[in-house]
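hey team, just a heads up i'm posting the complex here instead of the shared drive bc the drive is being weird again. everything in one block, sequence lines first with there labels, then the predicted structure for the whole assembly after. its two chains so it's a bit long, scroll down
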Amino acid sequence: MMAFLKLLARNRLALAGLIVIWIVVFLALITPLLPLADPDVTDTPNRFKAPFSEGAVLGTDHLGRDLLSRLMWGTRLSLAMGVAAAIIAATLGSAIGIIAGYFGGRTDNIIMRGVDMLMAFPYILLALAIVAALGPGLMNALFAVAAVNVPFFARNIRGITVGVAHKEFVDAVRLAGMRDSEIILREVLPNVLPVIVIGMSTTVGWMILETAGLSFLGLGSQPPQADLGSMLGEARSALITNPHTSIVPGAMILIIVMGINLLGDGVRDALDPRLKSGALSRPMPATEVDRRETTRAQTDSLLDIAGLQTEFRVRNRVYKAVGGVDLHVEKGECLGIIGESGSGKSVTALSVMGLVASPPGVITGGAVHFDGDDIIGAKYEVLRSLRGRRVAYIFQDPLATLHPLYKIGDQLIEAIQTHETISKSAARSRAIDLLKSVRIPNAENRIDSYPHEMSGGMRQRVGIAMALANDPDVIIADEPTTALDVTVQAQILSVLNDLRRERGLAILFITHDFGVVGQLCDRVAVMYAGKIVEEGPTDAVLRNPQHPYTSRLIDCVPTLGGGQRKLAAIPGLPPVVDRLPDGCAFADRCDKVQMECRSGAIDLAATAPARKTRCLFPENTQEASA
Amino acid sequence: MTEALKLTDLSKSFPIGKRMFGPPRAMVHAVQPIHLSVTTGETLGIVGESGCGKSTLAKMLVGLLPSTTGQIEIEGAVLDNADPALFGKRIQYVFQDPISSLNPRKTIRQIMEVPLRKLHGKNKAERAARISEIFAAVNLREEFLDRYPHEFSGGQAQRIGIARALAAEARILIFDEPVSALDVSVQAQVLNLLADLKDQFGLTYLFISHDLAVVEAVSDRVAVLYFGSVVEIGSAREIFAHPRHPYTALLAQSAPEVGRPIAAPESAETELPDPLSPPVGCAFNERCPNATDLCRKDRPALKPDESGREFACFNPI
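-- predicted structure starts here --
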């Protein structure tokens, strides 16, 4: 609760709304205790007294009733009506929405068509019709406003419920013996409750306005009872001669509705899970750079990463996702980066072209030299001209990276035309060639397909074709085959391998799969907790791993042909990168750990030609030199 | 040897293009009629690529999906109306995504208590005792019980999912890709835990995965699924080393392996058959190097050879 208030208070306007509403509600609550004149006693001789006159701070109305008193009682009534209508509408609407969304199928169809019919009428007409049928009166106006707002909740909550009801935890409790009614109340409802609260907080103001509207028309509160709408309605005839009688209730409606809307927006933002991670703002076009000194390239390779450090700054925590990585890729070479989730392999790859989302990502040190120039901290125009044209990315999930509403051909043509002025027809024939080069059968027809019409393997080929669109020098592939089936994976790997040989592409291949690295990559770097722990030629590293982490990890992976057996496991979990231990990050899970391992930073030291290991007691050093 | 699970003629079809009145436009046969039996104490691995019907099969086995035809016999009792509450005591399911199978707004204790309360009607003290017993078995600390799912790593959450399945006291467990969302170092921990639990509680496993090496490491027998049918079934030790069905061979060749040069095992044109217009004859004939005219006309049935291996192929390897 405190955390929620803190989040809310970050939004100044919402805080102002909260304060205003708090004051209004407080005054409304204590109204009966205040020494006010009776709001309903008429005193015709003293009609239309101006504000700040003797005995009537806000003046009197056309029947000489005290306006301040009527305002306070009227506010009390209007607030109560609005809140009651919101609660009724939310309860009914959410119940309908949850039932429709949970059961789906025919139930859903019948209920939602009924709701659609309600929505087909203009809301005020519908409210008028309801009141006309039931007769004017406060309670009837309340029901009318609530009924009119039921569809809003029903539709919203149905959408959320459909998502929740298909989650695996619902299947799980069903298998644990729960019945539908209990699942709805105990499993689904808690998950849609935040949405209901958000819906209520943003509609209360609206409901107050609507009840006031009905009262204004004389269909809500009946004289002499005051509410803000009926006060306005009664003052209408004296709008020109005695404007204060209209201004007083009008200003109060303005204050209440403004306050509630500001507060409602704040509540919505505070309950939005995306805000909790500290990322409300749109990410910047390039990763923020905050480094003290520049680092020189260590090699004259095509792509040289030297001492790269990237961290995520979330509130007062700093997650050192990449803690000083040195890598280089030559033309025509394939470098594998292998590591488990959270090892920093993807962040390393995204840092190269400044694609790490900022905030919260910041590059705090090191350099990335591409073709001799440092591109960390380069101008956005420079990065933009390099992205896609000279350094291209392939991501894990092609369904997420391809736009679902455009044909793949149009997306390819756009990728080509971004970096090159070329006619549409020329770009189209280039796109067909590209699709052919990634071995998409029947490319001339396939170019007009939408992403959802293709299988996962075909989509990933389009992803590769798009990366190749501008003949890049480097391709950074982030787990490009992880989401694919093995037979398709084999096809994609062979496409990538052929392209590399034909075009002299440099590939940075990120994966967690030793088998894939072993087949495709010339060299491999193993990452753990943001650092490279071992690097060298693929065969040497996989055959004679020197770092204990590498060798334990290789032992963990079952290989085909081993038969039924117990697997070697690494005990424990990788360290969290905001609390890295001194010394070796793997020390707690290593069975050969010594005192020295924990005492200080360990360097990535050369152990054999072209091999480096970040370990004080490397394994397999004899075999490697032999 | 007793049969823990016996499937007779079990199939599932989904209607496509539902209309308000009248029959649907088409039916997709997600699972073709399957006969399968699993003996008590055995681990049966089920492998296949996405869309082969392995998850549909698993959901039918626990009653989450009603079957279109056929019957399911669990420990001798026929269960033919899909009611997860009836199935729950006999057969349980461990989900692929450990985090999304735990309700984010419930503590682990609340999650663990549901099967004990609903399936076995245990009182509070009995529940607490049973939960500590199970938590000890899956190497989880009891202090976790009052935390929420998002505080756990994938491996820990999967242990909690396994603990929940154990709480139902079913003797058959179905694992639907239980380790594919986990890192390899954690994957091995969970697989070893499964092996220990099986010995400790005398369980029968159905282990579904797309990872051949994992399936081989944990299973006694393996069934290969393609396009909704079992195309080959045999001992885990033999089936990938000496496949008889060309599809099993293709799978085994495609698994990436250190030191083997990259070669696409089949041409780029191949795609999975379209479920809306299934091929005539053997579903694999368009991808098969050994396909003959017979394969394009008739569908081969699953038949055993002299060694007891069963496969559905006219021209086995």
